[in-house]
Amino acid sequence: YRSKAKGRGTYTIFTIDMVDSHKRKLSIANSIDQAISENEFIVYYQPKVDKHGLIIAFEALIRWQHPEFGMIMPGEFIPIAERGGKITSITQWMIEQVAKEMPTIRAIMKRRFRVSVNLSGHDLRHSGLFDMIHDIFNRHMVNPEYIEFEVTESAYLENFALSNKFFRRVGNMGCAISLDDFGTGYSSLSYLTQISIDTLKIDRQFIRELETSERSRLVTGTIIDLAKRLSLTICAEGIENHNQWDYLIEHGCDHVQGFLFSEPVPLDNLPFLPPRFHRQSTKAV
Ligand code: C2E
Ligand code: MG
Ligand code: MG
Ligand code: MG
């Protein structure tokens, strides 16, 4: 591709790379059904840690062990699945798989925790979503109090009425609800008093900039304050170092999640997570 900026004309050339990437997208779109039936998807779990350094939850994150392309990340195939109308089949697979793996996680943890599953906006427009989840919980005898759903601000708000109804129903059943990637989508906060959620998850972008940007520190501190005033739990994602963890603890953040504690890992690796994470700083909480 040659851009005007390079002064080489205004036309576009389709390169081998672009054709390959298009082929890959098509191939991914066309092999989703088969991936479900052949069990090519796999659940990875990333711990969420409380202020004492104890694991209180796991986020379930999907990966695809593709026979031709190797490991494909959700950032690549979830948007393709959404466009192709396949996302709700993936969501169903995901919840069912978490339900099947739940007894193993419970045996490892030996105490209360939640596993969160990410929902797409497309899922919320699917009228059978609640019944589908209810049915999975019944068949696998899942206690809904062990499950949380994560939904982005935009997915929630773009389907406001349906989201409110759905999350009220799953909330009444005992599931928790988090607003994911909070702070990136909307400028109006008035909706926060009208929706049915338990937790705000501050977007990774703010955490990444904590050490370099006064504005990000300010926004992060303000989001934590806001969550407290609304009696919501506050979780920060993308914690990669101790400075970020210290800042969040000092500002009253409830839960943290990030590579500092663990990358997402498959079920088999859960027993190797440390029983407790320790802060380097000696300051009192
Ligand atoms: P998300 O829900 O915001 O998940 C957090 C993403 O940040 C995950 O990427 C996680 O691996 C990554 N992450 C966690 N800690 C750190 C850190 O310290 N540093 C950095 N750089 N990254 C960190 P992942 O697994 O690639 O997932 C990307 C997105 O794909 C998720 O964002 C979520 O929106 C979507 N996704 C993942 N699994 C599912 C699923 O089962 N269903 C749906 N609908 N979406 C999913
Ligand atoms: Mg999430
Ligand atoms: Mg997130
Ligand atoms: Mg994010």
UniProtKB/TrEMBL annotation:
It comes from the Bacteria. Residues 25-278 form the EAL domain. This is EAL domain-containing protein. It comes from Alteromonas aquimaris. The lineage of its organism: Bacteria, Pseudomonadati, Pseudomonadota, Gammaproteobacteria, Alteromonadales.
